[in-house]
Design a protein that fits this description.
The complex is a heterodimer. By secondary structure, chain A is mostly helical. Chain A contains 11 helices and no strands. The longest helix of chain A has about 45 residues. Chain B is an alpha+beta fold. Chain B folds into 2 domains: about 170 residues, P-loop containing nucleotide triphosphate hydrolases (Rossmann fold), CATH 3.40.50; about 120 residues, OB fold (Dihydrolipoamide Acetyltransferase, E2P). Chain B is about 25% helix and about 35% strand. Chain B has 9 helices and 20 strands. In chain B, helix 3 packs across helix 4 and helix 3 runs parallel beside helix 5. The chains are: A mainly alpha, B alpha+beta. At the A-B interface, helix 7, helix 8 and helix 11 of A face strand 6 and helix 3 of B. The complex binds adenosine-5'-triphosphate (ATP) and magnesium ion. Adenosine-5'-triphosphate binds next to helix 2 of chain B.
Chain lengths: ~280, ~375
């Protein structure tokens, strides 16, 4: 009975994974298709990768996306960490629950709403202060920071709660002023969470199409925007190659983040086990 | 007259025993901490003198850690004042208080070596590097961990970690050292050994200790004075002997050590004796106590202060009862006899096993008729 059910579950799992990954595998395979027409197989080739590398448009989109992703990840990590610290370490200040809710709301907000509202804000700002002027790099970066920050804050918050406050109290007890406690104890212990938060924000920014489309301006194409605009005129094999490269990049980022988090969890678990063993 | 005054004002080695005219190091007044309307620490007053090793004793959740954390500055007060060495601590943050704490969980910094952990506190005082090195070396020698200074806390055993935690708290030579269940994570043998070490170290460095524990044996061994806590309040404060031999309530008598407690009425109250009629018979006490005749009272008897003899003849007279052995608990050095009285009450009696039982039979065994008795000074009278 049990083994039959588990076989059923195994089959469902395989089906589910297939559902996710077969399209991606198809994409990767077709990126090596020699034929000019996407649906027609014309043998193996890397010519679309060559086409890609020779396209100035693609290179500038890559550069823009990476630049935005990098600045976004860095700013979101700094701000998200501050928000996480405020939530977990400042005790019960007024409006803490509200602040916590507001912080995670972007996670569940439909992207079109986030994008639209940011666009409206940028237009209003521009009319009032003449800033940010032409939409593009700056506006996309700001938009990305606003939503990646929430993901980072949640990651940091979870880690801080898991760590407990005792070590920070111990440091304060030994005479360390609050800033010293932060730099000598809290941040070093947060490092894995900081790195995985940074990587998460980086990939989120690299992936985003919807919000970027809303707040971008003429000439500022991020990679996803470029891909989307090109396939509107029909499937193109060079875009398959580009997508394959993106999949690879994202997979690497996510793996590093996952490995870091897993290591941290395992270390925590080992510590707990060790402590428990010594109690008996 | 003048001579007498200077005598009481002289600084003594044990100021807590004669508190007149002595300046306490720590003065706690009306201290209260509430968690959502409910008081975890409830209106506590306490003076602690320099050089004391004061134990806080009480059941789980009675507020011991909370009290300590308030002294260290981690908890805000709802009301009351804490004065340490004459300075009101109200506006002094944790990092400026002349206290150091040894945490229940040790709270060693996992990303720093033993040496760095211990040096951390001194670095905060901007002490010169060479002096820090000397102090760390010295304290490592004291806790016998010189060979472990490069290790991370994870690579240490429980006992070693505990010593690192102690060293880290001690190295700053605080006026007041707070220890939250310092020995809880150790096994019994190591714990005994460390208890004496702790007392020795305290002797050597002369720091005032407040130690939280819920192990009463530990408290009895370590303490100059102790407080028994229950539900955020102090039930009694005194030396271990005072608390054990002169408990002020049934709670304390029962919490510290074990006690047979019987309800009774005072029948006679003389200047040098008291007679009480209890559920198990007449109890005669050969010293005066301020109780009213015919008032309700409780008599507490420590099991080790009761004599037990095998006897067929029923006992007569005060402080003597006959019964039958209902059960025996053999503990090696002593045995606990549960003696059932004709009234149905059970009295616990402990007696040392001074002879070796040959043929595996004990001197007194199950269902033996026994007489139990106690000295007129042994029974403790409790009014609450
Ligand atoms: N932050 C908090 N919020 C709400 N209640 C708390 C908090 N900290 C402690 N308490 C409560 O206050 C009471 C006293 O806690 P405390 O930690 O002082 O107990 P304790 O005497 O140290 O117990 P133990 O021997 O188990 O360590 C407990 O009932 C506990 O549940
Ligand atoms: Mg506690």
């Amino acid at each position: 009975m049990y083994s039959r059910r588990s076989r059923f579950l195994t089959i469902m799992l395989i089906l589910g994974l297939a559902f996710f990954y077969i399209p991606m595998i198809m994409l990767v395979i077709y990126s090596f298709n020699d034929s000019k027409l996407v649906p027609v197989w014309g043998g193996w080739s890397v010519r679309w990768y060559q086409v890609l590398f020779e396209s100035e448009e693609v290179w500038s989109a890559v550069a823009l996306s990476l630049k935005i992703a990098f600045i976004n990840a860095t700013c979101a990590t700094i701000l998200g960490t501050m928000a996480g610290l405020a939530m977990v370490r400042f005790g019960r200040f007024r409006g803490r629950t509200l602040f916590g809710g507001l912080l995670v709301a972007p996670l569940v907000m439909p992207e079109v709403i986030t994008g639209l509202s940011l666009l409206v804000m940028f237009i209003a700002l521009n009319q009032l202060f003449g800033w940010p002027g032409e939409r593009g790099f700056t506006t996309i970066t700001i938009a990305h920071i606003t939503f990646s920050l929430a993901y980072v804050a949640v990651t940091i918050q979870a880690r801080l709660t898991g760590m407990g406050e005792t070590l920070e109290e111990a440091a304060a007890d030994l005479g360390a002023k609050p800033f010293k406690v932060l730099t000598a104890i809290t941040l070093p212990r947060l490092t894995p969470a900081l790195v995985s938060g940074w990587l998460l924000a980086f990939t989120l920014s690299l992936d985003d199409l919807v919000i970027a489309s809303f707040v971008t301006g003429p000439g500022a194409n991020t990679l996803p925007i470029l891909i989307f605009s090109r396939i509107r005129t029909g499937l193109r094999p060079d875009i398959n190659a580009l997508a394959t490269i993106i999949i690879l990049a994202v997979a690497i980022c996510i793996s590093i983040a996952a490995i870091l988090m897993f290591r941290q969890q395992r270390a925590d678990m080992l510590d707990q086990q060790m402590a428990a063993r010594e109690d008996t | 007259m003048g001579a007498k005054l200077t005598e009481t004002n002289a600084v003594s080695d044990t100021p807590w025993l004669n508190q007149d005219g002595q300046q306490p190091l720590v003065k706690i007044k009306g201290l209260t901490k509430k968690y959502g309307g409910w008081a975890a620490v409830d209106n506590i007053d306490l003076d602690i003198y320099e050089g004391e090793l004061f134990c806080l004793l009480g059941g789980s959740g009675c507020g011991k850690s909370t009290l300590l954390r308030m002294l260290a500055g981690f908890e805000t007060l709802n009301s009351g004042t804490i004065t340490i060495d004459g300075v009101d601590m109200a506006d002094v943050p944790a990092y400026e208080r002349p206290t150091n704490m040894m945490f229940q969980s040790y709270a060693l910094f996992p990303h720093m070596s033993v040496e760095k952990n211990i040096a951390f506190g001194l670095q905060q005082d901007r002490m010169p590097k060479s002096e820090i090195g000397d102090r760390v070396h010295e304290i490592l020698k004291l806790v016998e961990l010189e060979n472990f200074k490069k290790r991370k806390p994870k690579q240490l055993s429980g006992g070693q970690r505990q010593r690192v935690a102690l060293a880290r708290a001690l190295v700053k030579e605080p006026k007041l050292l707070l220890l939250d269940e310092p020995l809880a994570a150790l096994d019994k043998k190591l714990r005994k050994q460390t208890q004496f070490e702790l007392a020795n170290i305290q002797d050597q460095v002369g720091v005032t200790f407040i130690v939280v524990t819920h192990d009463q044996e530990e408290a009895m061994t370590l303490a100059t004075r102790m407080a028994v806590m229950d539900a955020g309040r102090f039930k009694q404060v005194g030396t271990p002997t005072e608390i054990y031999e002169f408990p002020n309530s049934r709670f304390v008598a029962d919490f510290i050590g074990s006690a047979n407690i019987f309800e009774g009425r005072v029948t006679e109250n003389g200047a040098d004796h008291v007679r009480v009629k209890t559920e198990i018979g007449e109890v005669f006490i050969d010293h005066g106590q301020s109780v009213n005749v015919d008032s309700k009272i409780w008599v507490a008897l420590r099991p080790e202060k009761i004599h037990i003899v095998k006897s067929q003849d029923p006992a007569s007279g005060p402080n003597q009862v006959s019964g039958e052995v209902d059960d025996i608990g053999y503990l090696g050095e002593t045995s606990i006899y549960k003696v059932k009285l004709p009234s149905g009450h059970i009295v616990d009696v402990t007696a040392p096993n001074q002879t070796r039982p040959m043929n595996r039979t004990h001197r007194i065994t199950w269902e033996d008729k026994v007489n139990i008795s106690w000295e007129p000074s042994s029974a403790m009278l409790l009014t609450s």
